[in-house]
Amino acid sequence: MVISPHIPNLPYVEENGIKYFTLVAEPVKSEILPGIYMNAWGYNGMSPGPTICVYPDDYVCIRVYNKLPQPTSVHWHGLDVPNVMDGVPDIEPSPRIEPGQYFDYHFRITNPPGTHMYHSHFYTIMQDMMGLEGGLIILDPCESKKEVQRDYYLMLGAFALKNIEMGVLPSGVYDIDPFAHNSNFFTLNGRCFPYTAALPVSEGERVRIRFGNIGMMNHPMHLHGHQFWETAVDGNSIPKDNQLRKSTILVPSGTTRDLEFIADNPGRWPLHCHFPHHVSNNMTLPLGGMTTAVVYE
């Protein structure tokens, strides 16, 4: 089972061989640090939205309701779907979803097991940077608990909050500037350190961490205390003979990356972006931002 800390998996109802999911695109008030909220856009009351987990050959119907003040769409990033279901109304026959309306995206999962994402692809410059994104995982039905004991998904986020003085962290509710070139808060699954959840492991376990990145920035993610293997790129597995052993993995914009490691060095180990500004909360000095910890139970 894939765990997305702070983010639930999206439930579904299965009828006549079809898995029915529901997403509601809507404004959300997201708490990124205790007492600090941002007025974001998300799905089902959260940003990022809930993680969608499916299997190869599943037939899915994902109903998307639009409760935003402008039209929207959903693009199934990395999935091979029919043109009308791809969610880019400016180019494709895929429709835009008007406020107060819904659209049923329905397609068969034809990709192999892997890590993918979903996000808005209408008024992209605004809607993506407001937080309309989520993870989509194609599970491997043949993978056993003996192969990977812990499986985590982390979506990397960067936001420019308006009207907050640089270098301070006052409580309050802040609007996002989706058109800003620079960000002042950096998140994992919608939260900044130390408000992020730790990733518990047990000694000897094989651990997988999946990263997704929809935003404008690239993020070199560094794990302390362990070497790991890069095992997948954009939902495509890397053959074992070609896997690189690393301690830092670059997650560029628009990509997913999977890493795996053996938990063989007990302790409380940082996992963070290695850009210094990205491990800060609004440029304050203490450790923050895009940081969590791998913690041995």
TrEMBL record:
InterPro entries: Cu-oxidase-like_N, Cu-oxidase_C, Cu-oxidase_fam, Cupredoxin. Residues 38-141, 179-285 form the Plastocyanin-like domain. SUPFAM superfamilies: Cupredoxins (SSF49503). Keywords: Copper, Metal-binding, Oxidoreductase. It comes from the Bacteria. Transmembrane segments: none annotated. One of its GO terms (molecular function) is oxidoreductase activity. This is Copper oxidase. It comes from Paenibacillus agilis.
